[in-house]
Amino acid sequence: MLDHLRPSILLLLLSLYFLKANSQDIHQRIITSDIKNFWTAYDKIKETSDSTLQVGYINDLFIKRGTDGLKSIMKARGYTAKSYVDAIHNYPLFWHSVRADTQRADEFADSISKEIDKLAGIYKKLKPARIYFTIGALRTNGTTLDGNVLIGSELALADAHTVSSEFPKALSHLKTFFSSNPIRSTVFLNVHEYVHTQQKSTIGYNLLSQCVIEGVAEFLAVTVTGKPSTTPAIQFGSQNFEKIRSVFAKQMFFEDSGFWLYSNSDNEFKMRDLGYYVGYEICKKYYQNAKDKNLAISEMIRLDYNNPSALHHFVDRSGYFEKPVSKFYRQYDKSRPTVTGIKEFKNGSKKVDSGLSQITIKFADKMDKRHRNFELGPLGETHILKIKEFKGFSADGYSASFDVVLKPNHKYQLMVGSGFRNENGIPLKPYLIEFTTAK
After folding, report:
1. Which terminus of the chain, N or C, has fewer Cβ atoms within 10 Å?
2. Closest by alpha carbon to 208, among 58, 138, 310, 288?
3. Which domains, and CATH codes, for the chain?
4. Is 246 helix (H, G, I), strand (E, B) or coil?
5. Which H or E run contains 75?
6. Average pLDDT of span 18-31
7. Residue 70 has what pLDDT?
């Protein structure tokens, strides 16, 4: 049938066909319906002071009508109907100032789609993922869950005019964030989060692995878009390379991210999210050293971030540190505080008095009294030593006591976890308390 058409008409029809196909593809990739539903609920909530009605409106008009993306972002950040109602009630100037910008989400669909196509061009095994522009309650501008990108539009689409004057100290970082005009980085953010949907995991087992996870996404967003990162820590880090590397080397095996990621904690650099910089710098150096750039990108994305051997090999090949990661780890392991024993009995004893009501563990180092944690032993809940009350640390910080209730002829286990830290912040080597009470 098309054989009888003039070439110019044929070309026009083909162009319209591919334009329509591309438009449908964009529609399938990027979903924004939650934003309209939120503002419908918002307007109803503002009409009444009845808290029961307000919760009902957010549930019926927003949450129950929500996309899978809304369900996921609520799960990822622990949002509830009350979270939204409280945020609406507490920050009216903020919501008024950001409303128009959140309704611009569809404007970015074409640009985001083009950048994702570019990512597919350099990473041939790119898996499809949906992008949900939804509304949160001020806990994330972007995250991922179940292989989908979840954009908190109330933050991601804010700009320098977005009002932050109502926020408490816990949200004080948003003033700086808004001043960077995040709406201008919407495409970049989406590429970053899209990379996360391709990775083996987005949760690392220690600080180093988490920084590399974030660094891969940040570096590839820069590579794909051709634009510099808007994260202030990236520029700051490049200007303070040596000092940051030195401090990071002493903390990279910590099991929590401390001030390095996702935190407003005070630190000597007076800069949050420096872990993004460290991970970015490692990936940049790895890429620069690689002869096959596309292979390097594939290796970054497919890296098993929770495999210490693979992770350390990757970091070593980047050349970020002047010596192998394994040497830093041996130094770190030697520096970790330990449990030296139990005051009331020898660990492993099989004749502990069941009338014992308190146990005191002793440490080799002076401990930070703000931190502690206990975990199940290998035998699980049936043999767990339950703590009736944690009594606290001794005045000198070298011991800690807790009350227990014991049964005769029973085997008990309790892991003293790495949540305990010495005064230098170094995590404890886990210690298994294990004993059996007398008959």
Report:
1. N
2. 310
3. 31-327 (1.10.390), 339-436 (2.60.40.1220)
4. helix
5. helix 68-77
6. 55
7. 98
Element housing 245 (H / E): helix 241-251
Cα torsion through 379, 380, 386, 391, rounded to 10: 90
The partner residues of 358 in beta bridges, in order of sequence, read 403
Cα-Cα end-to-end distance for the chain:
93
Distances from the Cα of 229 to the Cα of 11, 180, 281, angstroms: 40, 11, 12
Of the pLDDT bands very low, low, confident and very high (cuts 50, 70, 90), residue 2 is: very low
Residue 152 structure tokens = 């908190």
Please give the Cα distance from 272 to 263 (Å, whole number): 7
Question: What CA–CA distance (Å, rounded) separates 200 from 121?
Answer: 20
Distance (Å, rounded) from C-alpha 68 to C-alpha 191? 20
Least trusted range by pLDDT, from 133-137, 230-234, 401-405: 230-234
CA separation for the pair 326, 408 (Å, rounded)? 46
pLDDT score at 166: 97
User: pTM, whole model, 2 decimals?
Assistant: 0.86
CA separation, residue 362 to residues 195, 211, 356, 413 (Å): 46, 33, 17, 17
Confidence of residue 28 (pLDDT cuts 50, 70, 90): low
Tell me: pLDDT of 1 over 70.
Answer: no
Chain centroid to CA 117:
25
Q: Work out the pLDDT band at 9, boundaries 50, 70, 90.
A: low
The number of residues making up the chain comes to: 439
CA angle 85/91/96 to nearest 5° reads 100
